[in-house]
Amino acid sequence: MPADLFPGFSAHWIDLPDGRFFARAGGPEDAPAVLLLHGFPQSHACWHRVAPALAETHRVVCLDLKGYGWSAAPAGDAAHHDYSKRRMGEEVVTVMESLGHARFALVGHDRGGRVGYRLALDAPGRISRLALLDILPTVIQWRRMQEDPALYPHWRFLAGPAPEPEREIGRDPVAWYEAQVRGWTGDGRLDAFAPAALDLYRQAWNVPERIHAGCEDYRAGAGPDREADEADLAAGRRIACPVLVLVADRFVGRNGLDPALAAWTGTFAPQATGAAIASGHFLPEENPAATLEALKRFLAG
User: Fold this and answer.
1) CA-CA-CA-CA torsion for 63, 114, 20, 77, nearest 10 degrees?
2) Active-site hit among 64, 82, 110, 217
3) 221-259 residue pLDDT tens
4) CA pair distance 251, 298, nearest whole angstrom
5) Which fold does the domain 3-300 belong to in CATH?
6) Mean pLDDT of 21-25
7) I need a labelling partner for 34 at 20 to 30 A (CA). Which of 164, 167, 242, 264 fits?
């Protein structure tokens, strides 16, 4: 990766049972730690416009989740538990402990946010503050898709049985992923992405194992992730730490902040606060200034 995407950050390879995971870390080593987790179909590179400024006051770790970027992309198990957000949360804890952080703030975009809120529910002592970027709870997402089958068709497509989605994407992977990403930006273009970051995304999109891993991520969302949410709702479990919900006004927040925030306050985060960001789905790259301002205020609280 070009060094100028993360100036002054160090590179780390962490060995886990499923393989080697990649992370970058920067900022004062004795500062409070914050972990930044990317979404689909990206990698830690999505934070390059936000991480250096956060590193002025925090020890910032940017991790490639399993199956993405440069981290391991194992095949996974038949029940999709290997790509469940519970399992990925456990891997996050191992990575952060290996870097010297037993407790940390977490900022998660898209799939990274799903890992984050699952970890906050499963291991509340680990997470000091949680920022969720442009997502609804998985269980709410599926309920809304049941009510309106036209919503988020990529969820059902990617969660379909192997190898059909993998085969379809594999016919022209970069074209398929770029079409998805364009549809989620605010202007339907790729101009918001730095060429160096986009090049990294494209490299990963061309790897069959990573295509499969992305599908496994969504299959887990349809199975064990959804089941875990349903069980926690039934048990009345709630996130204990402060929660910030940021929504893009041209994606999850297109109907305003209130419906998205209500999805969280009515389920796992009754105390959550929120803000709408003028952006498409990719807040850290489409509107890094507003995203950074909101995160700095929240992390300083």
Assistant:
1) -170
2) 110
3) 999 999 999 999 999 999 999 999 999 999 999 999 999
4) 22
5) Rossmann fold (3.40.50)
6) 98
7) 264
Residues in the chain: 301
Q: How far is CA 287 from CA 44, 103, 280, 281, 297, in A?
A: 17, 28, 8, 10, 16
Indicate the domain borders of the chain: 3-300
- Position 293 scores a pLDDT of 98
Active-site position among 44, 58, 101, 281: 281
The string over 113-142, giving b where at least 16 C-beta atoms fall within 10 Å of a residue's C-beta and e elsewhere, is: bbbbbbbbbbeeebbbbbbbbbbbbbbbbb
Compute φ and ψ for 109, nearest 5 degrees: -105, 135
Contact by Cβ (8 Å): 131, 295: yes
Closest CA to 12 of 54, 52, 71, 80: 71
pTM (2 d.p.): 0.98
Cβ contact 298:244 at 8 Å: yes
281 included as an active-site residue: yes
Q: Round to whole Å and give the CA distance between 131 and 284.
A: 13
- The Cα-based distances of 214 to 238, 245, 268 in angstroms read 28, 24, 25
- Which pair of structure tokens corresponds to residue 138? 């998985």
For residue 27, the Cα-to-chain-centroid distance in whole angstroms is: 21
Question: Which tokens hold the place of 154?
Answer: 């990529």
pLDDT digits (tens, 9 = 90+) for 65-84: 999 999 999 999 999 999 99
Q: Which of 94, 119, 145 is nearest to 237 (CA)?
A: 119
